[in-house]
């Protein structure tokens, strides 16, 4: 590393990562010496101490970059949720540099968000926590991408949430409900009760992902954006055999399944005398019956496609 003069102009000359750099420093030798010293210090920090210069970026600009990452690496549903999260976070953080955001700023957002009312009802703690979870992941990515040195949410606690809701059908209730449902809706509900698959996963299921020989179903379009395999029990196998015989050329296993499903489901529940049950609770029923039959939580976690076993523990 050196400085040199050409005419009345001083230059700096240095090598970094095997590449040679020459830059104009101005007409002052002193300025050239200080500039070179600053570069030497920065290189020393990077190479020997692992310290990177922090990039300056506003939250608004970083949010755009993060959403591009989310669109590529997360499921479509999670990406849409992140868009909504950032829509709430924006007014509080958009104009701030990431490096300026402190735990106090996050606490202020948490308090303001929780104090809001939507359609006359106070925002639920779980809703605020989903925004905070998105923000937390954004900061982790900011550290990974060199925009931050430390996480601004250190010490920020999530809001306490009430105990999760757990409702599952007994075998008698399930039979009663299925008898009261129209054929297409009943097929979807029966399939959900016996596979633990989400409604969207069932309605988007294609025949190419059904292996009747091995009695396996490949779930491609999942909430977590990760493929999983679900085995067929005898009820599911017989249903799929019957549906396969009467295929009308559709690639979907349940082409008519989404027609009036919500309306038919609620009407069937009313006729069956079943209360406080949602279509999504079919997953709870599937998981609960597995646990009661002796299946391990790890197996149930894999079949449900939960990333965190804590989500599965709620079915005990």
Helices, strands, pairings?
Layout: E1 2-6, E2 9-16, E3 19-26, H1 29-49, H2 59-73, H3 76-93, H4 103-114, E4 117-118, E5 121-122, H5 125-144, H6 171-179, H7 183-195, H8 199-203, E6 210-211, E7 216-219, E8 228-231, H9 234-245, H10 261-272, H11 281-292, H12 297-304, H13 309-313
Antiparallel strand pairs: 1-2, 2-3, 4-5, 6-7, 7-8
Q: Which word captures the global form?
A: elongated
CATH architecture title of the largest domain: Orthogonal Bundle
Radius of gyration over C-alpha positions, nearest whole angstrom: 28 Å
Unreliable sequence segments? 48-52, 308-316
| Helix/strand order | EEEHHHHEEHHHHEEEHHHHH
Instruction: Write the CATH fold name of the largest domain.
Output: hpI Integrase, Chain A
Give the terminus-to-terminus CA distance: 66 Å
What's the CATH class label of the largest domain? Mainly Alpha
**How many H/I helical runs?**
13
**Count of discrete structural domains:** 3
Q: Main sheet?
A: 3 strands, antiparallel
Question: What does the average pLDDT come to?
Answer: 84
Kindly name the structural category: mainly alpha
The CATH superfamily of the largest domain appears as Intergrase catalytic core
Helix content: 40-55%
């Amino acid at each position: 590393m050196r400085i040199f003069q050409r005419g009345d102009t001083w230059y700096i000359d240095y090598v970094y990562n095997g590449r040679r750099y020459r830059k104009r420093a101005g007409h002052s030798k002193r300025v050239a010496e200080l500039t070179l010293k600053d570069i030497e210090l920065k290189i020393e920090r990077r190479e020997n101490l692992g310290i990177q210069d922090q990039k300056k970026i506003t939250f608004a600009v970083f949010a755009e970059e993060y959403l591009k990452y989310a669109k590529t690496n997360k499921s479509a549903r999670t990406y849409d949720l992140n868009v909504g999260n950032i829509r709430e976070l924006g007014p509080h953080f958009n104009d701030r540099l990431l490096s300026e955001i402190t735990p106090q700023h996050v606490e202020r957002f948490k308090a303001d968000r929780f104090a809001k009312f939507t359609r006359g009802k106070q925002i639920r703690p779980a809703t605020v926590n989903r925004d905070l979870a998105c923000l937390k992941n954004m900061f982790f990515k900011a550290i990974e991408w060199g925009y931050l040195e430390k996480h601004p949410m250190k010490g920020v606690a999530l809001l306490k949430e009430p105990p999760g809701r757990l409702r599952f059908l007994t075998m008698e209730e399930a039979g009663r409900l299925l008898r009261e449902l129209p054929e297409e809706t009943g097929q979807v509900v029966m399939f959900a009760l016996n596979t633990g698959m989400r409604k969207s996963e069932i309605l988007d299921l294609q025949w190419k992902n059904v292996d009747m020989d091995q009695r396996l179903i490949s779930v491609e379009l999942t909430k977590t954006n990760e493929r999983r395999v679900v085995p067929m029990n005898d009820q599911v196998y017989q249903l799929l055999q019957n549906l396969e015989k009467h295929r009308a050329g559709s690639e979907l296993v349940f082409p008519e399944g989404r027609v009036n499903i919500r309306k038919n489901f609620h009407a069937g529940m009313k006729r069956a005398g079943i209360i406080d049950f949602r279509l999504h609770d079919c997953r709870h029923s599937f998981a609960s019956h597995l646990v009661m039959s002796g299946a391990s939580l790890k197996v149930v976690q894999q079949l449900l496609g939960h990333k965190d076993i804590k989500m599965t523990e709620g079915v005990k």
